[in-house]
Structure formats: structure tokens, C-alpha cells
């Protein structure tokens, strides 16, 4: 007991002596919404949509399973990260403002251990009760490949001159230094759909040590900015800051939301309805920030009238960063997998040898011209789904002037932007839109001519689709189309129609499809071909075949490699537990099976 009390005092020391507003996320979010009011509308629509979702059903469908005792047994979601180090005064690697690769890796490892509740120290281990931790099922991995299929360490160093970033070396970012936008213009994001971008800077103005974008933020604002000491310090206060900021990037809000953490007289946040007030999580009690001395669970929480229940140890509370809660995990998974699921499907953290991505397309003569101006109408596809294409993206606005996006060029890092389709079979195209009603159309360049003929219009809404709607249409690729060749698949959602028309308000997106003859067999269809049969045994969690299997690879339906090996028998023991539909590639066959 004495050791435990000393640990609590240690945590209290660092937080009671911390700079005020060490986290500037709320302030930055308000600034962005003032500049672009459509972001507030999108945030509110996002919250309303998630409140209508059956969270248990949704999380189960994503493999986020929890045992009756509270232990997390589901999927751990890998997020590829790129760390951009903005070095002042040309400092050498390993010095104060330019952490070494080893220091960065240790920082990432520490963060992963905190998320997994295995860090030790003041991080509570997984369990139940007020002083127990909750596994947050995310793992950060430094990128292994670039967008153009080159190897990378996932760490980028920049040495700006005073002409390139005036005032940065002296004053850092914000306040009297440069803006975050100046930093990202100088050191651009890697594709937000495939990498989480982290910036290490020398200092942050306004008393901050970090800030981060939410999953529903614009792509231009979806990143984390951290001071160098967060990545290099060995004291727990600094080590715990990035997990707090990452909490925002996976969808979590402060547990004192709506109250001023620096007020002389502390005011409790409104919490009449835990689903809509404060942090919108029902197992986190309202609290005030910077509690000093840090109370234990025998003290009354003035915001509830009952004893503290561990909220003072919460990662999002501005007190002692020791734990998340199951409710926070559920909210994070709902927010992140709804808005940023592409990151979990990215090949960015996969070595090039494991999956080289899809092929490249023939150049198109159907060019979308820059309309120059964007408006806060938030038009364009939010989600495109066809076959294994399942791409969530940001609609167009002042904050995101992306009128045309060629996702087909991202096939090296994003398996969600290309798919194989079988001719003469029916597929359902789904396109979701947000704020305004729009026309939705889609084309496939079946003859690979580089343009789109009238006969290649495969889906057409005819009239405008209402806002906040997922529209669907059936597509049947013809047997006369070019086979086994990457073909351009174009989707548009806008006020206008036409494959090549400039969108005044919406967006046009290109993807890749490859048409195949009927060679992929499901386990139920293999009776038509007795050469090779594979079935799944649920009791043993293995695949059983009628022939020796040999070399094999198993992919999920997004194209991510799940398992591979060589087995000189008729059985393959599966090393993964998540249910779903998978494809095993063996002996020139691609065979789907349900697990």
C-alpha cells in the first residue's frame, strides 16, 4: 500500500506542476471550425449518426470482442505512422531537438505499451474496477513503405532555413512562431488515408506541449503536433502526453469538456445526459482538471456528490494519466472505424516483400479541371464500396480543396482502393454523401481506352440523392470487357453530372478494378470443380483440403495478408481468431472461406 501511495504522489507532482493547457486540441478545433463552419456541422452530424448505431452489433462486426470478465480478445488495429521531425538550427541527430531513430522507436513502443496496459508504473493493468485499466486496441507502427512503393523508416527529418520557416527556430509553432499550416506546407502529410502523421517540433506556443486532430477533422487537420521532450523525456508526465493526444485522434474528448481547466473557481461540466453531454461516455464521471492534491476514491467528487470512482486517474482528465475505460474504448472504436478505418487497412506498415499492391492504370484523357474555388458545402463521396473497395474519405470544403482524387495511384499502400470483379456477376455499389443533396454517378472503362463512353456509365442516380444518405446500385460487368487488366473506375458526387465535367462543389474519385473470368470458387461452389477442395473446421480452427496444400497465402477481403507459409499436408492451422470471410491462394486457386 505504501508503494501505491507513493506512485500516486509522484503522478500528482507532475500534473500539479504542469503547464496549463498542455493540450491545445480543443483550442485548435475551435479555430478550425471558426475558419470552416462546415466542420462543426460535420462533427455534429457525425455524433448524431453514431448515437443511432447499435454499438454492440457494430463492434462485433469489426471483430472488437470482449469476454464476460472484461478482457479484450478482439482485433488489434495497426496504424502506420510517419514521424516528421522539424529540426531547428540544423541540429545533429541525437541532440535535443532532433531525436534519434532509436528514441523515436522507444517513444512509439512506450505509447503502444500504455495502450495495451502493459507499460507498468502508474499505468493500471487491464482489469475491472476503479483502479483497473482498459486495453485500447490500437498499435502504432512506423511506416515501412512510401506511397510510391519505396522502403522507408517512417521517420522524416527536415532542416528548414529562416527563409523557408521564418521565426521557427526562435519561437516554434503557434503564438509568435509559425503556424501548423506553414509546417505542413513545408513538410507535407503523407496520405491521410494510409498514414497517421506526427510532427515533432521544438516548442509550441500558448503553453502547449501537444495537440491533435479528431477522426472527424478535415484531412489537413488530422495529425498530431508534439514538442521534442514528449518524444525524448523519460519522466512519466511527458511519456503520458502523447497517449492523451492520440486519444483525441481516435475520437475521445476531455472528461471535463465544457469547463475551463484553468479557472480559479472550478466549474463542473454539464452531464445531464451522458450520451450527449461532457465527453459523451457513460462510464466516465464528470470531473474538474488539475486536482491538487490528487484525491483517492475515498474522497467525494463535487461534480457527482459521490466518491471518486477512478476518473481522477483517467487519461483524458488532466490529472494522472493512468487508464482508459471500456466506454472510452467503445467510443474510440466507433469514431475511428467510422471515420478513419482506411488507416487500419493500409499497407503502409507492411514490408514491401509481403504485398506489392495492385497494378497501374492506363492514363486517362478524361481530365478533371481545377475549379479553383471551394465552398463550405461538404459535397463529394464520403464512402465508396464495391467488391473489396471500401474507402472512406473527406468530402470537399474550404478546408479540403480536393475536387479530384486518383485513389488508383495509392494501390501500393491502400488495398481498399482496388478490387477484382468477376464478369457476369452482380455487385452492389454503395456511395455515401454528407451535408447536401447531390447527383451520384459511376463509370468503368471496360475497353481500357482511357476515356468513358456512354455505355460505360454503370450507375446513375438520375435525380439528386438526399443528404446524409448511402445510395446503392447494382453493377454487372459484361463478359465482353477487357479481362485481367487494371481498369479505371470513376465515381462522382456533385451538383453536376458527366465523367469529365468539372465539379463546382463536389468531388470525382478514381479507383481500380480488374475483371476476372469465373475462377474464384467459394467452398460451397467447389462441387463444380473437384481438383482442389478446402473446408474450414471451426472446432479445430483449421483448413482441411483433399490434397497436399504446399505454399499458401491467406488474405482478408481488403487484400491484407493475414497468414502465409508452406504446409506439406492437407491441413493448415490458422493463427488468427477473428471471424470473417477470407481467401486462401494455393495451387493457382483463390478460394473463399467463411471463418
Automatic annotation (TrEMBL):
Residues 439-514 form the GEVED domain. The keyword Hydrolase applies. It holds the Pfam family GEVED. InterPro entries: GEVED, MetalloPept_cat_dom_sf, Peptidase_M43, Secre_tail. It comes from Flavobacterium flavipigmentatum. Residues 186-331 form the Peptidase M43 pregnancy-associated plasma-A domain. Keywords: Hydrolase, Metalloprotease, Protease, Signal. Coiled coil: none annotated. Residues 1-18 form the signal peptide. It comes from the Bacteria. This is M43 family zinc metalloprotease. GO terms for molecular function: metallopeptidase activity.
Amino acid at each position: 500500500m505504501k508503494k501505491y501511495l507513493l506512485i500516486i504522489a509522484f503522478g500528482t507532482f507532475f500534473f500539479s506542476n504542469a503547464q496549463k493547457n498542455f493540450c491545445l486540441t480543443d483550442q485548435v478545433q475551435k479555430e478550425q471550425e471558426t475558419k470552416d463552419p462546415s466542420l462543426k456541422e460535420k462533427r455534429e452530424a457525425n455524433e448524431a449518426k453514431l448515437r443511432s448505431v447499435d454499438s454492440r452489433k457494430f463492434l462485433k462486426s469489426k471483430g472488437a470482442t470482449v469476454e464476460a470478465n472484461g478482457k479484450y480478445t478482439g482485433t488489434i488495429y495497426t496504424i502506420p505512422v510517419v514521424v516528421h521531425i522539424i529540426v531547428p538550427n540544423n541540429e545533429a541527430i541525437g541532440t535535443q531537438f532532433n531525436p534519434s531513430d532509436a528514441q523515436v522507436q522507444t517513444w512509439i513502443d512506450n505509447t503502444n505499451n500504455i495502450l495495451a496496459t502493459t507499460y507498468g508504473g502508474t499505468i493500471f493493468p487491464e482489469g475491472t474496477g476503479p483502479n483497473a485499466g482498459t486495453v485500447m486496441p490500437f498499435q502504432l507502427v512506423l511506416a515501412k513503405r512510401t506511397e510510391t512503393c519505396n522502403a522507408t523508416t517512417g521517420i522524416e527529418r527536415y532542416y528548414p532555413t529562416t527563409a523557408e520557416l521564418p521565426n521557427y527556430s526562435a519561437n516554434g509553432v503557434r503564438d509568435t512562431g509559425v503556424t501548423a499550416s506553414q509546417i505542413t506546407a513545408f513538410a507535407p502529410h503523407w496520405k491521410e488515408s494510409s498514414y497517421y502523421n506526427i510532427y515533432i517540433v521544438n516548442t509550441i506556443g500558448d503553453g502547449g506541449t501537444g495537440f491533435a486532430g479528431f477522426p472527424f477533422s478535415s484531412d489537413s487537420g488530422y495529425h498530431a503536433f508534439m514538442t521534442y521532450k514528449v518524444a525524448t523525456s523519460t519522466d512519466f508526465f511527458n511519456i503520458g502526453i502523447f497517449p492523451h493526444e492520440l486519444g483525441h485522434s481516435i475520437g475521445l474528448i476531455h472528461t471535463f469538456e465544457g469547463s475551463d481547466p484553468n479557472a480559479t473557481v472550478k466549474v463542473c461540466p454539464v452531464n445531464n445526459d451522458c450520451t450527449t453531454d461532457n465527453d459523451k461516455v457513460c462510464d466516465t464521471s464528470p470531473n474538474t482538471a488539475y486536482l491538487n492534491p490528487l484525491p483517492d476514491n475515498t474522497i467525494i467528487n463535487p461534480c457527482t456528490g459521490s466518491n471518486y470512482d477512478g476518473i481522477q486517474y483517467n487519461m483524458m482528465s488532466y490529472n494522472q494519466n493512468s487508464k482508459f475505460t471500456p466506454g472510452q474504448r467503445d467510443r474510440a472504436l466507433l469514431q475511428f472505424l467510422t471515420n478513419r478505418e482506411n488507416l487500419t487497412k493500409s499497407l503502409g506498415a507492411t514490408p514491401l516483400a509481403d504485398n506489392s499492391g495492385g497494378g497501374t492504370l492506363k492514363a486517362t484523357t478524361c481530365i478533371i479541371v481545377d475549379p479553383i474555388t471551394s465552398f463550405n458545402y461538404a459535397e463529394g463521396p464520403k464512402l465508396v464500396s464495391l467488391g473489396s473497395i471500401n474507402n472512406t474519405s473527406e468530402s470537399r470544403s474550404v478546408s479540403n480543396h480536393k475536387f479530384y482524387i486518383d485513389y488508383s495511384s495509392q494501390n501500393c499502400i491502400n488495398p481498399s482502393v482496388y478490387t477484382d470483379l468477376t464478369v457476369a456477376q452482380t455487385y452492389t455499389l454503395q456511395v455515401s454523401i454528407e451535408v447536401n443533396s447531390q447527383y451520384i454517378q459511376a463509370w468503368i472503362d471496360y475497353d481500357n481506352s482511357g476515356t468513358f463512353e456512354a455505355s460505360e456509365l454503370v450507375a446513375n442516380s438520375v435525380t439528386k440523392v438526399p443528404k446524409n444518405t448511402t445510395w446503392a446500385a447494382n453493377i454487372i460487368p459484361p463478359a465482353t470487357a477487357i479481362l485481367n487488366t487494371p481498369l479505371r473506375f470513376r465515381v462522382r458526387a456533385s451538383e453536376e453530372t458527366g465523367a469529365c465535367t468539372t465539379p463546382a462543389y463536389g468531388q470525382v474519385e478514381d479507383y481500380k478494378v480488374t475483371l476476372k473470368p469465373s475462377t474464384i470458387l467459394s467452398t460451397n461452389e467447389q462441387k463444380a470443380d473437384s481438383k482442389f477442395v478446402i473446408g474450414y473446421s471451426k472446432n479445430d480452427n483449421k483448413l482441411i483440403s483433399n490434397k497436399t496444400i504446399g505454399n499458401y497465402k491467406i488474405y482478408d477481403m481488403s487484400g491484407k495478408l493475414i497468414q502465409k507459409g508452406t504446409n506439406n499436408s492437407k491441413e493448415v492451422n490458422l493463427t488468427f481468431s477473428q471471424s470473417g470471410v477470407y481467401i486462401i491462394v494455393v495451387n493457382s486457386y483463390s478460394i473463399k472461406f467463411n471463418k
